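[Q] Does anyone have a clean structure-token version of this?
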Amino acid sequence: MTDAPPPAPTPQDTLSVTHHTATIGGEELRYTVTTGTLVFREEGQKDGAAEGEKPKATVFFVAYTLDGAELGTRPVTFSFNGGPGSSSVWLHLGLLGPKRVLFDDTGNPTPPPYRLVDNEFSLLNVSDLVFIDPVSTGYSRAVTGEKAGEFHGFKRDLESVGDFIRLYTTRYGRWLSPKFVIGESYGTTRAAGLSGYLQERHGLYLNGLMLVSSVLDFGTLLAQPGNDLPHILILPSFTATAWYHHKLEGALQEKPLEEVLQEAEAFALGDYTHALMRGDLLAANERARIRTKLARYTGLSETYVEGTDLRVDIMRFVKELLRGEKRTVGRLDSRFTGGDRDAVGETFSYDPSYATIQGPYTATFNDYVRRELGFESDLSYEIIANLYETWSYKDFENRYAEVGETLRGAMTRNLHLRVHVASGFYDLATPYFATEYTLAHLGLTPEQRERLSTSTYEAGHMMYVQRASLEKLSRELGRFVAA
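[A] Here you go.
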């Protein structure tokens, strides 16, 4: 008879506390950083729970708090990125935290070894900051024996991140602090969902949501037979990209970007929408006219756009626009270019805009978390896990995932909830025009519309890699929180 294996050790909170100074907005600030993991348990379980009370996961976070501040009046902002499957490193070391990855003014990194610099544009001067890595991202993990996949879906993800926010708020005495949530990409889907979940489940009312590169309605992004809306809403982003790379015809190319986009938007919502709605019933002469204009606003040939049935796919566009130069453009930020071995393929082999940022953020965070924040772990820090490939949307069975109605409901019940939405013109992943369409269809009252603000940037999905956009976005968010 063999002995049974010893039980796995009960996971414990693992925290490191360090103290720092930074100059932000011309003012020297002293702050404390709490880095580590909190054990996530089933409802009703407490830290140090008795045997039989089962921990589910350890959630990694990094919290920045201003020394000497009054917790009841000092705002706190909870931050995460998207994916699904992304850690919080991008907003952390790109925009909000007191350190940022060094890039040039365009958004190109220095050669390795990469480095962090003080972030004079950090939001720490107006708000404490808590960066959260959802389960299976960063250092967050399901407890041994648990099925990590339980957390990999819309509803369970909302619950785990929302319950962590509730736990942090309770542990660190922040119930009376003004509370904000900021998310990027799928993180905006999560943030909008949390605006409802936190209110309904925990009675936790937010002061504001900040949505960076937003997607609240997946029906605006997923182009499929029978859903032409994404083709309409991506068109101005194609125009911006072609303008940036000097692929528009002469008269159009010479105009400022804002004027070019106004034309593209008018065509997208007018003649182009009407043509796609006609489908196979579109008359031949009208089809020829639309084909010519579509080629004009995308920088592609009439032969190519005709071959697409007047419906240009994003992943084909990134390959086709600069095919004659054997170059591709980025999906996250179409200002960036790359090259493939196969110049006649249907789509690119990698996203050059993601390749530009992956290495610098990965290297600098792994060094920073150990050397400056004093947190040690032999786990791999999952910058981006491929959870998006198997993410569960079963709550939206037979329809597109949509959280705009949740956001509208939260703004209806919480009369002080404000929302700011930031978008990049060169973002092909979450196009700015799709965001404008979604916001225009939330069904908000005039009073609620006054609590919604937007800003746009001449950069991509992570617009803050560009220096000018970083400065502008920092000002916008600072004003939003300080209001």
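[Q] Thanks! Anything notable?
[A] The longest helix spans residues 257-278.
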